[in-house]
Amino acid sequence: MIAPLRAVRADPLLTACVAVALALKVVLFARVADLPFRGDEVAYHDAGCALANLVRDLAWLRSPDGGELSRNVVGSGWFMPGMGLVLMPLYLVAPEADDTVARLWLGLVSGAVFVLTVVHVRRSLGRGFALALCAFPALVPVWVLLSLTAYGDLLAGLVLVLLLTRLVDVLRAGQEGQPPTVRDGMVLGFLAIAVVYLRSSAVLAVVAMAATAVVVLLWSLRRTGERSVLGTSLVSAAAAGAVFAGLLLPWSIGASAALDDRVVTTTSVPTALANTFGERAEVCYGPCDPGSTVWFAPVRYAREVARATGGGEVTVLNQMSSHARQDVTSRSYARDVADNFERYRSIDGFGALLKPPDAPHDRGFWQWVARDLSLEIFGPVSWLVLAALLVVSGRRHSEQVVAVLLKVGLLALLTQPFVHLAGSR
Amino acid sequence: MTDFPRPDDGSLEQVLRRDLRETVDHIPAVPVDAVLVRDTRRLGHALRTHRTTMTLLVVAAVALTVLAILVSPALGRAEPTGRYRPQLPADPLELGCYPLPPGLTLDFPYQVRKDGDVDGVRVLTLHWDELDAAEVRRRLAAALVGAGLPRRSATVTPFPELTPDMIVRGEVVLRLPVARLSSADPACTDPATTKRFPDDWAPSTEYG
User: Fold this and answer.
1) Exposed (0-12), middle (13-18) or buried (19+): which is A293, by Cβ within 10 Å?
2) Of B71, B84, B204, the CB nearest to A288
3) A251 and chain B in contact, CB less than 8 A
4) How does DSSP assign A36-91, residue by residue?
5) Pairing of strands B154-158, B168-176
6) pLDDT (0 to 100) of residue A2
7) Which chain A residues contact residue B54 at CB under 8 A?
8) What is the distance in angstroms between the Cα of B50 and the nearest Cα belonging to chain A?
9) Long-range contacts for A303-307 (Cβ within 8 Å, ≥24 apart)?
10) DSSP symbol at A125
11) I need a surface site. Which of A272, B30, B70, B187 has the fewest CB within 10 A?
């Protein structure tokens, strides 16, 4: 009982670093407070509203508005409702909350998750990692700006770090011959599915880390040679899988029913592939309807086909994507991947997204802070990431565990440019 | 040789006890002084406070959540914008904004791609689904003849590189007499619905 108390004892330097990071958040909140939700944020807002209405209806035993849920929570099946669930409590108690209040709420949630992550990182990985987290990304202006938006990428990243710390704890205990408990497994499963709900494309990182952890765990427990220990570990892993699948199912079933097609996580992958590597002017077997974007126009077309044939639009989207990609060569693919990597490393665009609608583009102090300064910090760190992948640590077992999990997670995250038009998020 | 007396278990125990006593004598006793008592008390107190605080926090959070859920229906409904999944506008030919010539009906699955007048002729471009080209030609020919229009009004072009499972199969271009706007439905003024796109609408090839 004494150990955990000691572990959370105040650390002046770390506390100060967290305070600085949070102070930066407050300063930047003043900057974005007036900005209305834009782009995908609108979809997350809608999901939050519809989920709040669902809770309202269930609380008073009214039948839920299926149409509203289908249109706003599932939508076109692009986004899993993680951010909708984050916003839901706000719209539950304040149905008319404006976007300033919503940004404040999002800032509070991301701030709380950030502090929680720092505490856990300090406990599992040590003070150095916790301090590093406070510096990067918590002091990168654009990251802080992002934490005040409804995009789920940032929270997904923090929860992914939480997942990493828990995995490290479990693997360390495993090294000492202690198998994880069912409770451990359930917590891990919950964190994993939380990451996927917040940002479905992180599913690869989650699955890769989980698979690596299971292998490492069984490897270290094998030496103890006790069947019961192995059995307990497998039960725990099964519990993690059950929680993951159990929480994924409501979404998969709901989205599949709403779109009348099979949806596991999201429907955006085929369109993303087509837009990134295919011929955009061929996605709708020719150009899509003008006056829209590469995301909405193909879905509109697929919905029209689905209406005409009585089939599902997701199947149509898959076929459209294959058609648009039929001329992809290894050379064009490689070139697009390289372009994506470049974009991965640049923050261009996001600062512009956060500027007030009438503000001049690419100018002014805040644009400099959001873009150029962030880029100055992000650039070198992205090379550090590469270095982290190449450095092989021969030190203690627990450090190796951390290094292996980090590498696997990073590699999985770096698959993004291979499948999707990379963005600054 | 003399047999040494084998120590019985009783005396062995005695020896062990004596050794233990002597060893214990060397270990300085922990003085149960005021400082130890105070520190232990403080630690115990801190632990109890920690546990009580956590319990109270959890209870408060649960109570607040339940209260929020119970009160929420009285606070009104949240209004989603629905902008990310707008209602799909009706098929322009069914809507009848610019109707087909009298007697002409299209009895195959299609979606309108483009509509508009070029040099005094209405050019209506469709994609058809599921059927093979011969079947679409047959049905179109029958429909055109039935409406008193020449068969050559329709050009049927299946997509190259068709695979059997492909849903959308090809393109039909119909050259018809010019039609006038003949519906007061407000949707008929939206080019996205009528598919009569103005020239200055940018192609949808931009990221977002």
Assistant:
1) middle
2) B204
3) no
4) PP-THHHHHHHHHHHHHHHHHHHHTTPPP-HHHHIIIIITTS-S-THHHHHHHHHH
5) antiparallel
6) 39
7) none
8) 9
9) A303/B88, A304/B88, A304/B91, A304/B111, A305/B111, A305/B127, A305/B129, A305/B167, A305/B168, A306/A260, A307/B88, A307/B91, A307/B111
10) T
11) B30
Say if the ipTM goes beyond 0.85. no
Task: List helix spans (H) across A94-149.
Answer: 99-124, 127-135, 141-146
Burial pattern A367-388, b for ≥16 Cβ within 10 A else e, equals: bebbbebbbebbeeeeeeeeee
Cβ of A303 and B127 within 8 Å? no
Strand partners for B112: B126
Which of B79, B91, B129 shows the shortest C-beta gap to A309?
Answer: B129
CA B167 from centroid of its chain's CA atoms: 23
| Average pLDDT per consecutive 10 residues, chain A (425 residues; last block may be shorter) | 48 92 92 86 97 95 95 96 97 96 97 96 91 87 87 92 93 88 96 96 91 89 78 93 97 96 94 92 96 95 97 96 93 87 64 57 65 73 73 67 78 69 48
Amino acid (one-letter) located at A289? D
Instruction: Determine the angle formed by the axes of helices A268-277 and A313-324, rounding to 10 degrees.
Output: 20
Of residues A139 and B56, more confidence is placed in: B56
User: Cβ of A291 and B110 within 8 Å?
Assistant: no
B126 CA: distance to closest CA in chain A (Å): 11
